[in-house]
Amino acid sequence: MKTKIVNYPDMIKARDRSKGSTNFIMGKSEHLEEMKALAKGKKYYIHTYGCQANVRDEETMRGILEYVGYTRSDDISEVDVAIINTCAVRENAEDKVYGEIGNLKKYRKINKELVLAVCGCMVEQPEILQVLLDKFPEVNLYFGTHEIYKLIDLIYEVKKQGTKIVSIESKKGEVIEEELPAIRNNKFKAYVNIIYGCDKFCTYCIVPYTRGKERSRHFIDIMNEVRDLKRLGYKEITFLGQNVNAYGKDLEEGYDFADVLEEAAKMGIPRIRFTTSHPWDFSSKMIDVIAKYDNIMNFIHLPVQSGNDEVLRKMGRRYSRSDYLNLVKEMRKKIPNLSLSTDIIVGFPNESEEEFQDTLSLVDEVKYEAAFTFIYSPRKGTPAAKLEDNVPYETKSRRFKELVSHLERHIEEDANKYVGTIQKVLVDGVSKTDANMLSGYTETNKLVHFQGDESLVGEIIDVKITSSHTYSLIGERVDG
Ligand code: SAH
Ligand code: SF4
Ligand code: F3S
User: How far is the CA of 383 from the centre of ligand 1 (A)?
Assistant: First the structure.
C-alpha cells in the first residue's frame, strides 16, 4: 500500500471568522457531497484515551462524522470507520493503545473497506509514529491533533485512492474550533476549551510537543459558547486548558482567565469548573472571583508534582514549596469550604529519600481532598528523559504506595466530615456499581451514591450524606 503525506494549508488560509459557521469549514471540504453519499447508513467507532482535551476532540470528530451521515456504534465489526484517539503522557497510556490496535487490526482483513485510524497525541511524536507505522501496517490513516478539521477529506482519500495517509501538521498556529461542529457526550455537563497547547515545558512532560504552543480562543467566541450552553439548559461547564491561567496572554484583547470566570458566572450557568490551573500563575484576582460567585465551584485542581524545591526546580515547575503553600493558604482563607486536589509524580530521576519525604510532609500539610498520583515515566524527547536515574523501580514503587496511603488518610478523613450534612448533587446517572442507585457529584466534586428515580438525571438536588468511603459518599435524597 502506498503512503501519502497530505497537508491542506489552503484550507486554513481560506478560513474566515466573519462567516464562521459550521457549514463554512465543512463546506470547504472538497468531497463533502461524495462523503455524504459514502457515509449513508454507515457507522463509526471511536475510543478516546487521555485527558479532557482528547475527550473534547472526540466530540468534534463525532460532530464531523455525524454531519456527513455516519452514526455511532460500539461494535467494531459493523463499522466503516474506526478511530483510536491516543494519549502519550505516560508509558502505560501508550501500552493500552498498542493493545487495542493489536485487537482491532484483524477487522481490516474481515472488512476491506474499513478505515482504521489512529490520531491524538501519540502520532504527534515522530518516534512513536514510526513504531506505529512499523508495527501496524493495517492502520490506514494517521492524523495529528491539529488535523481533525480535515477528517472527512482524509477518510475520502483513504477510501477512494486506497492509499495509507499520514497527515501531521508541523506548525500548530491557529484555533480552528470555531468553525467545526461538535456532538457533546453529555446533555447537561459540557467542556469548553479556552486555551490550547502548553508553553510551560515542564521537563518530564510530552504535552507541549504533542499539543503545540499556547493559543487562546477569542473571548467573544468562548462567551457565545457559554451563552448557547446556558440556553440549552446545561447545568455545568468546565473550562479546559493545559493551563487555564495562561488564558489571554497570547492575545491582545485585554481579558484574562479571571475575566472568563466572572463573565461566565454572571451568565448564571449553575456550576462552573475549570482544569487545569498551574500554581505558578494562579492570580489573586482569580481567587477573588472564585470566592465571589457561588456558581464557581469551590474545588480547585492544583497540581504540585513534588514537595521538594530541588525536584521542583529540576522539573521546571517555576514555583517553590513555600510559593505553593502560600498560594494554598490564600485560597483556603478566601474561599470557604474549598476542596483541593492535586497531581504528584513519584520517582523523578535521582529523587532522594529526603526529597520524597518533603512530598509526604507537604501532602500532610495541605491535606488534599483528592489526588492523582503517578510514577515518573520517561518520555522520549523531553529533557528529563536524558537524565541518568539512580533510583531503582522497586524504590519508586514503595514510595508510591507510601504516598497513596498518606493521601488516602486525608481523603478518608475529609469524606467522613460530609456525614450528616446536606449536599447539592448534580445527578449524573445510574451508579456504575449498583443499578438500583443513582450517582452524582457534590460542588466539591465528591462522588455520591443514593437511591432515586432516573428522571432526576441532570438535576441538581439535595442529598443528605449518611456514610462515607474513601472515594465516595452514600446518601439519601432530601425531598422538596
Ligand atoms: N497541564 C496539567 C497536566 C497535564 S498532564 C498541569 O500542568 O497541571 C497530567 C499529569 O500527568 C501531570 O500533572 C503530571 O502529574 C502527570 N505527568 C505528566 N508527565 C508525566 C510523566 N512523564 N511521568 C509521570 N507523570 C506525568
Ligand atoms: Fe505538561 Fe507542565 Fe504543560 Fe502541564 S504545565 S501540560 S505538566 S508541560
Ligand atoms: Fe494525553 Fe495528550 Fe492529554 S498526551 S494527557 S491526551 S494532551
Answer: 14
